[in-house]
Amino acid sequence: MAMATPKLEVTNLSKSYAAKDGGNTTVLDNIDLQVPTGQFVCIVGASGCGKTTFVKMIDGLTSITSGRIEVDGKAVTEPGPERGFVFQNDSLFPWRTVRDNVLFGLEMQGKPRADSIRDSQEMIKLVGLAGYGDYYPHELSGGMRQRVNLARALAMDPDILMMDEPFAALDAQTREIMQRELLKIWEVRKKTVLFITHQIDEAVYLADRVLVFGARPGRIKADIPIDFARPRSLHLKRTPEFIELTDRIWNLIEEEVVRGMADETLTV
Amino acid sequence: MPPSASIMTSVGKDNAKSVKQSSLPNRTKRRAVYSILLGLILWELIGRFVVTDPILFAPLSKVLLALWKTLYTGEIWRNIYVSAVEFVIGFTLATVIGVLVGVLMATNRLVQDYLDPWVYFFYCSPLVALMPFYIMIFGVALASKVAIVFTVAVFPILLNTFVGIRSADPHLLEVGRSFNCSRRQTFVNILLPSALPFIVTGLQLGVGRGLTGVVVGELFASREGVGYMIATASQSFDTPVLLMGVLLFSIAGVLLMAIFKYVERRCAPWKQSQEAKGE
Question: Which of A155, B39, B77, B265 is deepest in the core (most CB within 10 A)?
C-alpha cells in the first residue's frame, strides 16, 4: 500500500531497564509502526505489555533505548506542542479553575493571556463544559474532570493526541457517553490519535485500527483494521460483526493473560 | 477551528457536585458554645468555693476585673505591644528563612544531604532551653526574645516546606514535563502550589512554638512585656493578674490559629472537600 509520509513513524523501537539482578529487562522489543495523518489507533494488551511506556516514549516523557520515533519526519527527543497527552486520571491541578487548567499549556508557552482565554473558552464549550470555567476540579464529577483533561491537551492544538486509559475511572454509562463525544470531537478536529484502553469494545468502537500488544517483551502482536462506517452510533456495539471482532481480539489477548498468570505463579 | 458550537453534549448544571463549604452542623456549634460557658462557670465556682486561697487561684470575675483595671490605666497596652513586636519580628524572620531554606533543601540534593541531620536534630530539640545562652549574647531587651522566637519557630516551618515540595504529586510533575515546563515554571506552577498547604501547617505549628518562646524569654529575663507582667505578678502573689497574662497569651494563640485556618481554607479549598468526603 503506497502511503504518503506518515504522521508518525516508529522504527525498531526498543526499551529496556537495568533490572535488580544486574541484567536487563526488555519492556519493548523492536517495534515498527506507521500511522497516517488523522488515523484513530487504539492499543490494547494485557497489563505489563508496555503500552503506556510506548506512548510515553512517543510523547517524549520516557527515553528511548534504541530505535527511532519520527513525527512528520522529525525525530522525537522531548515533549513538544505538536503532541498532546491525556493522562489517566486526576492529573488536573487542584488549585487551578477549569479555565486555568485548560490554559496551562498555552501559559507555559508564554502566549498572551487575552488570546488564550478566548481559545480556552472555545475549548471548554467544545468538551461540553460551557459555564463551568470558574469551577475547581474538586467541584466536578469524574466524567467532567476527564473532559477538562481532554480540553487541556486539545487547547495546544496538537497534531497527535495520546490518551492513556482516559476513561478507565469512569462508570459504564459515563464512559459510553464520553466515547461518543470523543468521536464527535475527533471527526471535527482531525487529530491523529493513539488511545490506550483495557476495554476491547471501547477500542473497536473508537478505532480505525487496533494494535494488540503482546507481553514479555512488549511487541505488536496483531494489527487489525476496523472498517465500520463512520459516524458510528453506540448501536454498533450490539451488532454481530462488532461482537465477532471483539471476540477475536479478546482471544489474542487471552493467551497473553493466561501466560502472564502462569509466569507469575511460577515466580511466586 | 471548528464552529464554536458545543460538540460534546453539555453537562447539566445540576450534575456538578455541589460542595459549597458547609459550615459545621449547628448542633456541634451549639455544644461548643455550651462547653465554653460551662468551663467559665466552673472556673468561677472553683475560684469562689473550692480553692478559696487568693494566692493559689482566682475566679474568672477577679481576673476580668484585673484586666479591666489594667486596660483602664492603660499600662497593659505597652506590655502587649512589646510582646507582639517580639513575636512578629521573630516569626516573620522564621517564615522567610524557613521557607527559603526548605525550598533550597527540597530542590538541591547537596544542600539536603548536608542539612538533613541538623534539621532533624534541631526540630526534635527543646530549643527554648537556649534562652539563658541568648540572654548572655543578646541581652535582656528585644534581640534575645526575637532570637528565641525565631529559633523555636523556624524548624517546623522549614521542615513542612521541605516535605510539602517533596510530596508534590508525581502525576502533576509529569503533566508539567508533557507541556515542556522549564525548571522555573515547574517550581512556580506545580511545586510551590503543592507545598502551600504544608507551609501553612508549618506556620500553624510555628505560631504555637513562637508564643511559647515569647513567654519563656520574658519570664526568664525582661523589663516589659506580657510575660514580664506574669513574672512580676507572681512575685507579688497577684494571682488574678498572673492568670490574666496567661489568658492573654491563650487568646493570642487562638486568634492566630484562626487566621491561619482561614488562610489554609483560602489557599487549598480542595483539601477541605477531600476531608469532607472522607478521602
Answer: A155
